[in-house]
Structures are given as C-alpha cells and as structure tokens.
Specification:
CATH topology: Herpes Virus-1
Strand content: 15-25%
Structural class: alpha+beta
Largest sheet: 2 strands, antiparallel
Number of domains: 1
Helix content: 25-40%
C-alpha cells in the first residue's frame, strides 16, 4: 500500500481537535486562524456581521489576523 505519512502540523492539528473557541462545542469543521482560534459554522453565522465586512475574509477576534473563506 502507498500510504502518505502525515506531517507534524497535521498530527498536531488532529490531536488538538475541533473545539469551537466560542461555544466550546466539538464539531467536525471549524474555521481556524493561524493563532489557534477556532469557530464553528453556527457561531460564525451568528457573529458574521462583526467578523467580516466583505464576505471574502474574516477577522480573528483574538489576534486581529485576516483569514479567507476559501471563496476567492
């Protein structure tokens, strides 16, 4: 079998899990900032008005970094 080895970054990310920084719920997918802040889709929808002004990027409330939605 031709299995790919996972990078250290991916292993560390998997170990961290997907726990929303806002509601503390464990989810299958979170929007994640480079600083480690994670937000689930439900919390993102509730707080979208304060995190994005153009629908293309969102601003991390912890570090102020700009992150894309992947729709560019």
């Amino acid at each position: 079998m031709n299995e790919k080895k996972k990078s250290a970054y991916r292993l560390k990310r998997e170990a961290r899990g997907h726990i929303c920084s806002c509601c503390k719920a464990e989810t299958e997918f979170n929007w994640t900032c480079r600083c480690g802040f994670q937000i689930c889709q439900n919390c993102m929808e509730e707080n979208f008005w304060g995190m994005s002004c153009n629908g293309i990027t969102w601003q991390c409330p912890d570090c102020g970094g700009q992150n894309g939605f992947g729709n560019q």
